[in-house]
Amino acid sequence: MEEKVVNVKPGLEGVVADTTTISKVMPEINSLVYRGYPVQDLAETCNFEEVAYLLWNGELPTMAKLNAFVAKERSMRSISDDLKAVIKKFPKNAHPMDTIRTGVSFLGMEDERVWNNDPETNMDKSIRLMAAIPTIIAADYRARNEKDIIDARDDLSFSENFFYMCFGEIPKQEIVKAFDVSLILYAEHGFNASTFTGRVITSTTSDIYSAVCGAIGALKGPLHGGANEQVMHVLKEIDDPAIAKKWMLKALEDKRKVMGFGHRVYRKGDSRVPTMKKYANLLADLLGETKWRDISQVLEDTMVEKKGIHPNLDFPAGPAYYLMGFDIDMFTPIFVMARITGWTAHIMEQTAHNRIIRPLCQYIGPGERKIIPLAERA
Ligand code: COA
Predict the structure, then answer these.
(1) What distance lies between CA 272 and its chain's CA centroid?
(2) What rounded mean pLDDT belongs to the chain?
(3) Pick the CATH number of 19-220+335-352 from 2.40.50.100, 1.10.1200.120, 3.30.390.50, 1.10.580.10
(4) What is the pTM of this model?
């Protein structure tokens, strides 16, 4: 007998799965707040380290608390020689999201406290992950490009240190600020797919490294974090503002999903886009490279006019990272550098009020039947 399908929510659309005190997405007014603070205000006023502290502790730090936090983060940036040796052996054509996932797994294997999920230990591990993930990404970038790995420095800010480990130098402060802003905007976003994945894994009382590995796997997909890479591939494919409108009209005619547009929660625009767009445009002016901005604007105007679908954060972030000099396949790993703060805030929140996440599904397969012995099956 066929069962009637009732109350199924594909993609869990509209389902409120739990409460959180970390962030609130308000699509009706295009707003996102972290612990009560609008994200665009945080991006303009604070640095990424302050925002990480806020996400984990619920309050912005005093100067003394920030100094102590920053000192701790800086002291945890180095990775072991064993991990460096493994990174050097990764297949050269592996996607950096796969290498960062394996790198995080390795950090977990090196941590003797892996099974300890008490609040202090998990906070410590979260800071360690925030500090070490950029080092893994940069080391992998250098190794893939046949360059010597550059060790982390403890006299640089989080963002400056990442540029230094990748390129051996620190760019102009405007570029560092644009990067820092992108990290703040990417840091946290409610029960998005990767965060929810991390919470599901945490809910089994598994360890934080396993939860983060799962989250990285979820973020890799082009419908989620992988979109910032795809945006840049599309901009390069178009390459000329004069043909951008035609390209978009054809993509819509072909019913192609255009990366960097649309959002499950925001239907009238992504609250983070105006800030990221502002900084991407500043970069374009600073570096004298306006082609990507011009193509982007035509794509946005055409999409909004024809479909009423707005760009999401990945749309301005992709070309901004390209202008900063990063390889396209590093864009989603950079997203990991930022979102590790939100993921671990949720992992700690889930741990504090845990109930195993175990939804139901409605079976719509064949009714009960008898097994025909193998020899008699047609
Ligand atoms: N390009 C073209 N059309 C799009 C679109 C896009 N990027 N995003 C949504 N649409 C259209 C869908 O085709 C659908 O149209 P239809 O009703 O005529 O079938 C409608 O808008 C609703 O989209 P849907 O796919 O049901 O929304 P969703 O909530 O399931 O998916 C995303 C949300 C983000 C996965 C989706 O917008 C998408 O794939 N975007 C591109 C990838 C991306 O940028 N991801 C980063 C998200 S931050």
Answers:
(1) 14
(2) 96
(3) 1.10.580.10
(4) 0.95
